[in-house]
Structures are given as C-alpha cells and as structure tokens.
Amino acid sequence: MARILTYNVHRCVGTDRRLDVGRVAEVIGALAPDIVALQELDVGRARTGGVDQAHEIARRLDMSFHFHAALKVEEERYGDAILTRLPERKVRTGPLPGYRPAPRLEPRGALWVEVEIEGRPVQILNTHLGLVPREQQLQAEALAGPEWLAHPDCTGPVILLGDFNATAASVVHRTLTRRLKPARPCRRSDRRPPPSPRACLSCASTICSSATRLRSRRCSRPICPSRGRRRITCPW
Fold it and tell me: Which of 38, 56, 135, 184 is least buried, going by the fewest C-beta atoms within 10 A?
C-alpha cells in the first residue's frame, strides 16, 4: 500500500511570512508518504536564499526526486517536483501552452514519472495550472492530449496530481475527467474552517485512471503555518 501526497508549498514561505524549508519537510514527513508531488518550488533563487528547495526537501525525507522548471531566469528556477522512495524513472517533462493575449502570465509545465508500486508500474503526473480560465483550458487540453495522458505509454494505473486552480464544476475538470476519474471528494469536516469559496479546490487535484484503486483519500488539516495547505494522502 502506497501513500501519495500533493502539496503546493508556495516556495516554502508560510502564512506567518517565514521562509522555512525544514518546516515544510517536517509537515510532509509527518504524513509518511511514499510519493510526493510538490508545486511552487524555488531552486537557486535570490528571494529564497539561493536554496535548491527540491533537493533539500528530498534530502531531508531521504527520497529521490525529479524537478521541472516551468520558469527560468538566468540561473534561477521555479517549478514542480515529484519525490519518492520507491523505484522510479523520469518519463517526460515539458511546458504547457500559455495564453497568447496575455504573454506575461507565469509559464506552466508538467512532470511525468513512472513509479514502481508493489512490482507494478504506475504513471504519476504533476502539474500546476494557470489562473486565467482560457489559459487553464488550453493547458488541460494539452494534458489530455497525445504528449501526456493520451500518450501510448501512459497506460495502466495513472494518477494526475497538482494544483489545478479550478473547481470540480470547471471546464478544466471536465476536460481531464474525460480520460481519468476524480478521486473521492473531501468531506466538509476535513477542511474546517474554509478560507475561501475554493476551500476544497485541492480535493479536485487528484485524478486517476480506472485502473487505479484508491483505498482512502483525505485532505489533511494544517500542521504548521505553511501556506501550502493542500495536503492529500491517498493510500494505494
């Protein structure tokens, strides 16, 4: 049985405005996941002290990792990662389409890693979609297309994780669930108090193929004042 977690760490800066990579690693470690999908990591950026956050969190958790930089500015990088202590191999990383009428929007990307769980290959994808509805739609269509979810190698158990910035009623969700099925929604008791109308947004951020069986799923309550409160554990 594997436990999977997705977490937007917001460059490891908490709601108390304190930058603390170690604290984020402790939050993740307390949930004892086997696979972790992280969004909004800084690598070598001056604003967060030049730390390679993906490497440092993986080191503290004794996990291997793959990082994809959606944004690159000289030596500074910003993006998403997949960490695991299970056998794995990187399949693909790449950008997702932007919205041409708004060229200054933050670039987005995706990361695909194959992880062996109990002797069976499982396709794990991690992404962080944009904020503009049309931009999100283009990115969801790309994910559902032949380079990602419709790729011939993306078969068997498939789990798409990330911060979709979209609710279950959105076009994004409908586009992705044409190929995959949503994991069980959170119970209201799992997300008290709701910080916004999108309080359970993260509960739409785990979507699986029909070959994937989730034994249970929950939105974990905040353990520390970290901005990345979207923590989900999915025992395999």
Answer: 184
**What pLDDT, on the 0 to 100 scale, is given for residue 3?**
95
Element (H, E) at 96: strand 88-96
Q: Give the model's pLDDT for residue 228.
A: 46
Q: Omega into 235 within 30° of 0, i.e. cis? A: no
Query: Phi and psi of 132, rounded to 5°?
Result: -85, 130
Please state the pTM of the whole predicted model: 0.86
Read off the DSSP letter of residue 52: B
Other Cβ atoms less than 10 A from the Cβ of 184: the count is: 12
Which residues, 6+ apart, have CB-to-CB distance to 142 below 8 Å? 96, 97, 148
Helices assigned H by DSSP within the chain: 21-30, 53-61, 133-143, 171-176
Amino acid at 160: L
Determine the pLDDT at residue 195: 37
What are the φ and ψ backbone dihedral angles of 150, each rounded to 5 degrees?
A: -95, 10
Total structural domains within the chain = 1
Determine contact, residues 11/42, Cβ cutoff 8 Å.
yes
Quote the radius of gyration of the chain (alpha carbons, Å): 16
pLDDT confidence of residue 35 = 98
Contact 2, 86 (CB under 8 A): yes
Decide if 32 contacts 1 (C-beta within 8 A): no
Task: Find which of 33-37, 165-169, 170-174 is predicted with most confidence, using mean pLDDT.
Answer: 33-37
Q: Which CATH number covers residue 160?
A: 3.60.10.10
